[in-house]
Each structure stands twice: as C-alpha cells, then as structure tokens.
Amino acid sequence: SQLHPVLDAPTAHETEAPDLADAVWRGLTQSPKQLSSRFFYDDEGSRLFSEIMHLPEYYLTRCEYEILDTYKTDLLTLFSADNRPFDLVELGAGDGLKTKLLLNHFWNEQANFTYTPVDISKAALDGLVADITQQWPTMAVNPQHDDYFNTLKRLGDRANTDGNNTRLVVLFLGSNIGNFSPTEAVDFYRQIARHLNPGDLVLTGFDLQKHPAIIHAAYNDSQGLTRAFNLNLLRRLNRELGADFDLAAFDHYETYNPENGEARSYLVSEKEQLVKLAALNLSVQFSPGEVIHTEVSRKFSRAGVEHLAQQSGFALTNWFTDGKAYFADVVYQK
Ligand code: AVI
C-alpha cells in the first residue's frame, strides 16, 4: 500500500455556476416555487451545517456516531472479510468527523485499506486530507476531486482489470440519501451498483421514522441555525446572481408528514414583494405567505430501506441502529 497520500491532480469538472443560474431560473418561474437543497452548501452554508450537526435537537449526527462507535469492530470484520484489502470510498466526505472514528479504529487494528474521499468541493477535500495526514501521516489516502460516478467507474474498472482483489466499500453517511426523491434514490443506488463488483459493499446512514415532534424539532432548532441555513440560500443568490432578496422579508418554515416520512423546508415571503435577479434578467413576484420549497429530508422505515435495496440490485446484509433506534447504518452487498 502507499506510504504517502496520493494527491491526484484535480480532474476537470463543471463549475456549479451555470447549473445554479439555470436551476434557479426554472425553480423561481414555476408554481409552486422551488430551489434545490444542493445549493445550500457554499462556504457559509457548509459552516452552518457543521454547527447544525452539534445542535441538541439535531440528533442525527450523534446517533450515527454512536452506531459507528458501537459497531466499528463488526464493520471492520465485514469490510475485510476473506482477508481482502478494502478501499473505503466516501461519497461527499464533508468534515469527516464520523469517518475519522472508523479510520482510527481501522488504523489501530492495522487493517489493509485505502481511504478515498470523494467530493466536488476542493476546499472540503483539502481540509479533510490535511487533517487526516496530520493525524495519520502514513495512511493511504486517495482523494478524488470529482463526480461520484466518474470516480466509482474508475475504481470499479480498476478492480476488475488488474485482478487486484480489493473490495470497494462505499460510504454514504449522514442520511444524505434523505435529501433525494424516491426516484433519485433508486437511480443513485442503481448507478453505484453498475460500477461495483460482486461482494463490494455500500454503507448508508438512514434517518428513521420516529415521533414526529422529535423530527420536527430537528429542523426547527431553538437557536435558529436551521433558519439561518435556509435563508443563507437567498444570500447566496444575492451574491452569485445579483439578486436583491431582502432576508428580513422571508421566514423559515418546516413541516413533517408522518404519513410519508417527509420533512420539508420552505422559505416564506412575509409580504407582497418583487425580487430582481440581475444575472438572470428576471423579476419574481411573491404574494404574502407564498413559499419557496427548498429541501426534503426523508425519514425511512425498515421496509423502505429493504425495498430500496431490492429495487437497485443489492442485498441488505446488516442493519445497525443506535440505542433509541432513531437512525440506522445499513450494509448493502452487491
Ligand atoms: C445534509 N442533510 C442530510 C441534512 C438533513 O438533515 O437533511 C441537511 C439539513 N437540513 C436542515 N438541517 C440539516
């Protein structure tokens, strides 16, 4: 294995800007209005999300941390079964807090593995790699500044062709899958499945359905961080698209529907107003109380998680939950 982290040259990828302009134009000219939660994560949005993860009401991160801590030995046994080396490929690694718990354990157990964080944010990736190399200077780290599926294709092909016997273990933590629609989720796992080989694994964090009040509070925290996170999207449009959203004239509103497990976030116009987006040459009229839908955070049932595996060509092999069964980290096998 490598003695030093391999810092691959960043691969060419599209900047987010054209995508943002296009999506915002479509989202604000349709009814009901809509903006995608993928645009939350500019520098300030990423910083706010890191703070949200420490909120008392935002149980998701703590629950997942507890699961990974409790079952790290079981996970290593699964990942390294048959004495095969494994490549831990983390999709959307972020600050890697929970992953570092696993890395620390795998390192102490002298496991034969490489860590491959994948992110389209160069800044996030650089920060994570700097952090990891500081803690474990000789760990094999192979950061990929690229699209998830380009990366998986390359890794899957390599595992196929050079006869190396490395197992790919894809990590998708934090209930990021909850921000996808049901169709997008199936599509996502089907694409992953296409690049994996038999015996490869995917470990996903799913936030589970529970008392609606607990979920509702997680997206309506008392410190107003979730509100700031949601409103920051408008600040981003002001900066990047020359818009003139008055942040004081919009409110944060969230609903949770226990019948379908969907937490939905909205920005609400407090009054009749006209907003201009100079870069789009667009003016958008809002009536009082009119909403922009910004995010869905889906909560899963066990049946839903099993169904997702079946629909996308995986077998669900392990189900790990925290003490309160609020959250599950689930292993799918190709
Ligand atoms: C990143 N994602 C899983 C978070 C969630 O819970 O849907 C984003 C978030 N939105 C509001 N609070 C946190």
TrEMBL record:
Superkingdom classification of source: Bacteria
Domain called Histidine-specific methyltransferase SAM-dependent: residue spans: 21-333
SUPFAM superfamilies per the UniProt record, alphabetical: S-adenosyl-L-methionine-dependent methyltransferases
E.C. designation(s): 2.1.1.44
GO molecular function terms listed in the Swiss-Prot or TrEMBL record: L-histidine N(alpha)-methyltransferase activity
Coiled-coil annotated spans: none
Signal peptide (from-to): none
Keywords carried by this UniProt record: Methyltransferase, Transferase
Name used for this protein in its record: L-histidine N(Alpha)-methyltransferase
Entry keyword Methyltransferase: yes
Database matches in PANTHER family: ERGOTHIONEINE BIOSYNTHESIS PROTEIN 1
UniProt record, GO biological process: methylation
